[in-house]
Amino acid sequence: MIKYLSANYIVPVSSAPLKNGVIAIDENGVIQGIYESTSSDIIGKKIEKYAGVIVPGFVNAHCHVELSHMRGQLAKGTGLPKFLSSVMSSRDAKKALVVKHMNAADEEMYANGIVAVGDHVNTSLSADLKNESKIHYHTFVEIIGLEPELVDGKVDAAKNLRLNFDEKFSSITPHAPYSCSKQLFKKFKKSVSEDNIISIHNQESEEENKLFRYKTGDFLDFFEVIGKDVDLLKAQARNSIQSYLPYLPQVNKLMLVHNTFTSLKDLDFVERMGREIYWCFCPKSNLYIENALPKVMNFVNDNQKIVLGTDSLASNDTLSILEELRALHVEFPELDFTQTISWATLNGAELLRISDRFGSLEFGKKPGIILLKNMIHLKITDDVTVERLA
Ligand SMILES: [Zn+2]
Q1: pLDDT of res. 162
Q2: Which residues are in the Amidohydrolase-related domain (predicted)?
Q3: Domains and their CATH numbers in the chain
């Protein structure tokens, strides 16, 4: 049974928006056709009309679902090093409680129109949820380690943890430049195959740049608190990204997450390396932890690939890509929705290698069909809400 749906606009993402367009889906939500309002193919068809804009399901490129029980627990505006200390001292909780909050987070994301998630883990706690969820997950198993002598064990442990998750839709990844030694980066590079997608936290805090440039700042206090020896760290006289990027394997798909303090010089450096990067913005998390946002227009003007993430409920009060879009459009009114919608959908699907199914409204795909209500033409306002149509 084919259903025909129409709205004020259909935004396929992979092609131009269709005013009063029509989309046909079968009973499984697989797209059977997309039509202009004047198409002869839809004459005589029974068409369900909606007020709003139809878009494909959202891709949340960055989350830590296993931290969902920490919603509302951590103070805002502390800066990253203090935030990390708080996460480490309060993340432990009874398994049943963690599972309960993870399940609720999964349902919240589904209701908010999210169809796929790039999810970081340090434990296997989310494995059962991911097997059963209506959402597609790609799991990034984090490697963390500043002690050069423990490098081999760290990589082996990550590989073992990964066995709990779908092999095709998981990979191992360094957690962040400040939490991995140079030796660990090198070992990682030797240990992964070319199809291992990398997702690393990058320049979330100016303190990270200070640590790499001058070996100063709040990260040194953080390391002292967690008992890490930083004698081997040397000031590099350049930002973190310029120090560690050369250690990452060149051909692997690479997402850098946050980029709140990535400079124009850093972008030039990346371009000179000839490296394609997916830049993931998590604006609400940045506002929560650092009360700062990335210089988004630098990336736009440089034609960089951008994706969006919610980060975890430890640093966000919602898991909603629409909310992330809204935060960006409020701060950067010059952004156009027809551009940012690809950040929220197709770019993330390409990164996670699931664009055969997700990310755009195209024949044969099953991307989730989302109605954005209360849009004014193609603008996100305070009143826009999400309804799932399929
Ligand atoms: Zn994160």
Answers
A1: 98
A2: 53-373
A3: 1-57+359-390 (2.30.40.10), 58-357 (3.20.20.140)
- Residue 352: is its pLDDT beyond 90? yes
pLDDT at 226: 80
Cα-to-centroid distance, 173 and ligand 1 (Å): 12
- Of the listed ranges 41-50, 199-208, 216-225, 246-255, the least confidently predicted one is 216-225
Provide mean pLDDT across the span 27-34. 98
Cα 62 to ligand 1 centroid, rounded to whole Å = 6
Across the beta sheet with 254-258, what order do the strands follow? 198-202, 254-258, 278-281, 305-308
Helices (H), ranges, 1-132: 80-90, 95-111, 127-132
How far, in Å, is the centroid of ligand 1 from the Cα of 312? Answer: 7
Between CA 321 and CA 338 the distance in angstroms is: 15
Q: How remote is the CA of residue 243 from the centroid of ligand 1, in Å?
A: 20
Identify residues whose C-beta is under 5 A from ligand 1, the ion: 311
DSSP element (H, E) containing 33: strand 31-35
Are the beta carbons of 49 and 9 closer than 8 angstroms?
no
Neighbours of 86 (CB within 10 A): 15
